[in-house]
Amino acid sequence: MEREKINKGFAEMFKNGVIMDVTNAEQASISQEAGACAVMALERVPADIRKDGQVARMSDPAMIRAIMASVSIPVMAKVRIGHFVEASILEALGVDFVDESEVLTPADEARHVDKTKFKAPFVCGARNLGEALRRINEGAAMIRTKGEAGTGNIVEAVRHMRTINEQIHALRGQNSHEMAKYAAQNCVPLELVRQTFELGRLPVVNFAAGGVATPADAALMMALGADGVFVGSGIFKSQNPAKMAHAIVQAVIHFQDAHKLAEISQDLGDAMIGLENESLDVKMAQRGN
Amino acid sequence: MTVGILGLQGAVQDHFAHLKRCGADYKVVRDSAGLAAIDRLIIPGGESTVMAKFMRQFHMLSPLSERIAAGMPVWGICAGSILLAEIADGAQGALKALPVKVTRNAYGRQLDSRIDFIEIAKFGIPHYPAIFIRAPKIVSAGPEVISHAIYNEHPVFVTYNRVMATTFHPELNNDDIFYDFFLSL
Predict the structure, then answer these.
(1) A51 given a catalytic annotation
(2) For residue A167, with 0-12 CB atoms within 10 Å meaning exposed, 13-18 middle and 19 or more buried, which class applies?
(3) What pTM value is reported for the model?
(4) Do A74 and B110 touch (CB under 8 A)?
(5) How far apart are the C-alpha atoms of B185 and B159, rounded to whole Å?
(6) Contacts of B51 (CB under 8 A, 6+ apart)
(7) ipTM for the predicted complex
(8) B44 vs B31: CA distance, rounded Å
(9) pLDDT in tens, B93-141
(10) Cα B87 from Cα B162, distance rounded (Å)
(11) Interface of B with A in 23-62 (CB under 8 A)
C-alpha cells in the first residue's frame, strides 16, 4: 500500500513532460539536454525493431547501467509482456520505472507480470478502459496508450486515448448494477471502476505513446487529455534529433497556444518516415490483453 | 488573491483540489507574462533540470527573482526547492532565493523513495507522513533560514522570509495543512 502510493506519486512527477526512447548514453544526454523528464532505455527504437522483424528482448544491463550513469533524470527500461524475470533483473539494476511493453516480443500470451510483487513501479500500455484497469489492478503505477509504435503514425494513439475517454464518460450514465456488470465483463474489481467514475479519469497518470512524430502530434495528445507524452522513434529517427526533441518538449508545455506551436514547429528538418497502418506486418498494439 | 503554479513540467494539477478547498484562485504560469498576473507561486515537484531549462529559455528567471525579492511568497516542492536554492550540487542555483545548499537525488533512485513520519511542531503534528520521492537533501542552511522539520538530521521543511521549501510532497496527501500555511505567509 505504501509502495503503491510512492510509485503512483512518482508517476505524477512526469506529468506535462516528455519521456524519450534512447539506445545509448549519448542519446540519453541529448535527451536530457533537450528537456526530457525521463529516458526509456532500449536496444533498438521501435522503428528498427519493426524493420528487423526479430525477437526483441530486454536490453543488455551494461547498456542500461551506462545510461543510468550518464544522466541525472529518471531512467526507465522495457521488459517483455509477462516476463517477470526480466522485470526482476531491471529492479536489481535499480531502474526507476519498468515498462512492460508490447514493443518487445511477448513472453507470455495469457498473463502480464504481477506487478504488485515488485518494489519498482511499472507502466503498461492500454487500448481501452478495461485494459487500463486490468493493468492498474495488476499493480501498474502508470498507463500509456499503446498507439502503434515505430510507425510515426498518430492515428492509433488518438484512437486509444479517445476510446479510454469515451468509456470513462459512458460510466456516468450507469447505475450500480450496470457498473458491476461492466467490472465483471472486464475482469476488474468494481471498486476500481467506481473510483474511475468518481474521478472522471484514470486513477493513475496516463501518457500518450506510439506514433508521436512531430510537436503537433505531441500537442494533439495533450489536447486529448494525455498527462504527458512518450516519444519513441520520433526523435532519433528524425533528421535533427536534438532540435526535434527540444521542439516536442516545448509543444507539450504550450499545447494550447497555436502561435507558439507555429514557432516551435518550423525549421526542424524531416520528421521520421511514417508508415500507413494497412502496410504493417506486425500490429504491436494487439499484443497483450 | 491568485496563486500561480509554475506549469513548465511536473505535478501541476495535483495542487488544484487543495487550493479549491482553501478557497484560493489559481492559475498555471507558463511564461513571463503569466508571472505578472499572480500574487504567490508554487514551484511543483517534477524534474528540476527541465524547469530550470525552460525558465531560462522563456526569460522567467529575472522577473521571478525580482518578484520574490519584493516579497512575493513562493513555495518550492522537491524539484522546486532545488530551483529556489542558492547552491545546488555545488553550482549556482537557478533562483538563489533561499540561502541553502542542496544535493539532488541525495537519497538515491526511485527504489530508495519512501514515506516516513516527521514531527512538525509548528502545526502541532507529531507524525506527518512525508512522501520523499528521489528527494533532494538540504545539506546546509544559512542562519536566517528557519527549519520546521528535520528528517535524518537534515531540514526538510524550511522558510526564509516568505520563501518556503519542502523536500517532500504534501500535494500527494489529502490534507491541506501546508496550503493553509503557505497562504498565510
Answers:
(1) no
(2) middle
(3) 0.97
(4) yes
(5) 10
(6) B6, B8, B9, B10, B43, B79, B80, B83, B94
(7) 0.98
(8) 15
(9) 999 999 999 999 999 999 999 999 999 999 999 999 999 999 999 999 9
(10) 19
(11) 30, 45-47, 49-50, 53-54
